[in-house]
Input
Amino acid sequence: MDFQSLVYQGLIGLSLSMYLWLVAAGLTIAFGILRVLNFAHGSLYMLGAYFAFTLYYSLKLNFWLSMVLAAGLVGIVGLILERFLFRRIYPLEEAYQLILTFGIVLILSDTVKMIWGGVFMIPPMPNIFVGTVNILGRPFPVYNLFVICAGLAVTGLIWLLLERGWWGKTVRATASDREMASALGINTPVLFTTVFILAAVVAGLGGALSIPVRVVAPGVGTAIIVQAFVVTVIGGLGNLKGAFLGALIVGLANAYGILLFPTIELFLIYLLMALVLLVRPKGLLGG
Amino acid sequence: MEKTIGEIRMENRNRVVARWLLGLLLLVLFILPWTLGTYVTWTASNILILALYAAGFNILFGYSGLLSFGQAGFYAIGAYVCAKILLGTSFLLLGFLGGVLAAGLAALIIGFLCTRHTQIYFAMLTLSFGMMIHSIIWKWRDVTGGDDGLVNVPRAPLAIPGLFSIDVSSVESYYYVVLVIVALGIFLLWRMVNSPLGLALQGIRDSEQRVAFSGLSIQKFRLIAFAISGMYAGMAGSLMVPLLKSADPGMAHWTASAEPLMATLLGGIYNFAGPMVGAFILYVAKELIARYTEYWSMVLGFTVVVLVLGFRGGVVSVLQGLLFRRTGTVSKRGVDA
Amino acid sequence: MKRRGLVTLLVLLVSASLLVAGCGQGSGTKATGGASDSKAKELPLGVEVIKIGVQGVLSGSHADYGRQIQMGATLAAEEINGAGGILGSKIELKVMDDELNANVAQKNARYLVSDWGANFIVGTDSSGVALSLGPILKELDTIQIFTHAATEKLTEDLVYKQGIKQIFRTAVPVYQDAIMAAYVFKDMPEVKRFAALNADYEYGHTSWRMFKETLSKFRNDVEFVAEANAPFWTADFTPHLSKLMAAKPDVIFATPWGGEAVMMLRQAVSMGVFEQIDAWWQAMGGSVDVLEGLATDVKRDAFKGKLWGTGRYLHNWPDTPENKAFVKAFQQRWNRYPNYSAETTYSAIYMLKAAIEKSRSIKTGDVIKALEGLKIMTPAGERYIRPEDHQAVYNVPAGRVIFSSDYPIPIVGGDLKIVPADEYYRKPPFN
Output
């Protein structure tokens, strides 16, 4: 295996990581701040894809506008879910959170089936992304490059939101001590709603970004959520930097697994997760 | 807690009613194949197997407070080992024995690693081990047949060489094999949960520290529960193979682990009877709902949400509340939790 | 608490069993309704309705295949009933979702036969499900005509070697994906380096193995340079493609199907794969859902005419009155083009009709005899049911995926390669 192929495969792996990261980021924010393990988070990714498909393909809106609107709509779904359901879930034990949100997965999958039908859908590739760029003598898809950039940009935005400015400070304060925060006059229920919306928007954006190259179908949410769980567990539950690292590891392990160890490729990510849990149960970057 | 005379009298009455009903239930189950035809008999076999699977699962979930997403792995190990044995030899009991032992052994090894953790870490570990089993079955095509699975497994006669041989190739006669083994398995489980072991497990679930102070090894008890639960999953898997005459890798997938979980949740987790009642309701409800709408999993989803939010004790608790007056000796957790 | 739990359990289980008993009894009496008996006796078959159970996947991402099975079966039954039924007896259908799950499919088969009273079953998409159903059909002694499942083991092992005579199949098995491909590439001497993107299950692995074996018999100058395996639910094929392209192949042989095929081809286009290879073999690329999904890419010539596809039937071939009438009727009834699983199921019902009329019986044994060796004209052309393995033998071409002004969606129509089925199908004794 020559050096060029390894680098090229790595770049491909990096674009896989970005989809995972967008789902895992929301999962991690929700767990780190709201203490909720959301199995249905993958379903928000799925909803993002369906909304984007309808906006971009059926309603013929501009691609960029479709992406933003789809993410926004998922945010609204997040708002409704949080107000009426997740609020009641926060106090539950983690095991019950998992089970209950699994129930939500079933409901949402059937709902999209009712609305959009069970058939897979894929819109045409937007013209600006048709084509390739030359990397190490091989053509590399422009769209994958775009996904990598978009993923990094979102990472920057999340960092700005959480580390700079008033909102992030309040969120971090509440995360470390809820009672103290409400004693200081922070309206925690409203804050929690905004946090949940942020998590939903990011996952929705991930789903929206996937539509020109990945099909939209009722099962895409469940397919990605298990991988996203692996990512967050490897990085450390609730640890955002860890989730980013975890996404990189799983994306690259997937790409290199296919290239180098095709027979155990399926096995590999679960083995990674088990090893991390056994050796460092709090994850690679967990405290 | 002191019992009043009224409470003791009530318990005695309940005990008598219980014996009569147990007798009646066994009678119904016994005559079922004669009166209701092959399809109902086949369905009843499935429900009995799911009941055994769920009851074993609840040793881990309800009694020990550990949520496993890898149960399907042990179920599949039981199924595949049993299928392999039946394709090679033709001794039904050997197939069952092999399936249970293999699943038990796997559960011991994996349990040794998993039971060091609890909560979400335990759930994720069992998920990853279960999926590793799934991918081994999927990829080890020479032995497991890949996604085609193992097919045309015979419903071998119930025999001990030199002693006896009973033909159980029809669905009706195989049903009796299932009935006897499930009844035996559930009886054993009943004895277990009412033994010191069962009490210790519940003690650990409710307060780890208290049990630790009393000098018991918590991990050892959890490991025992894990192994028992794995063996019951393996038993269920082995029983299923001759019924289906096949084993397939879908049996090992994590989504299949949700089945005993749903049954248990539906019936009620803090009650010995819960998982079995749940298995019955889950199977029959799915059967009936699926005939009218393709959206049965949405119905299931809503049921799960309502159960977890409002009725953690499941159907059994709700009905208990309706059918019986409280005797006052029930722990808070047993009814309301 | 313990005792009370037990009592409750027993109350529940007893009442439940009684409930089930009641239901069971109910359906039992329904089956032998008395009034119409006399009318049925006058009919040659002695029954007023012939019940045909239909199974396919109706949920999840492959649901369109099951729906096509349902549409094909319904159309055939409506046509036959409209023309007076089979020897005066009407067809009644019951469609069930098998969820691509062996346990569910067995439950359906048992329900259809034991409870609903099906005389025959048609359908089934998944190979694994089909294989697990085989022994059960023998136990139920009921004929099922399989209309999609593609594993060669179904007919070669279960029928020919193990003698389960209740199994028939109207759809061509993996021979189409593997051996037909070898026939295409044996005549393209300029392509030498082959790489595989396998569906990571028996179907994909068997197709690649058969393809390699057959092509190696024709040519000794070919190389098989790389392979990558993609399991069910692969969302991104770019790492697989990247691996294959590093080996600089002339041809990619790909077996993922349905939505996965569309996504894989889209990703291949985005990577510029079609600038670097000479041909792409897409097994079942002629499936209507795939063609619909690829329409915009074919229109903008993203595949540069290098995409080859086939199916178990192509709606644009053969150019016969039977096929034209079928496609027209299907479009009128369902407002869509028929996919192959619709045609194979439609033809399965007509095959049952022919066999019942020939034997003047609906008994399993009689109909099996009548089906063996049956020759019948169907939309896909003449089908001959080989008596040894119960496989329907008929021609399906392969070709380049192109746009034609006659159809709104792309078709498999360029450089059509037609090989007599007799030549490329594997034959008994299947060594």
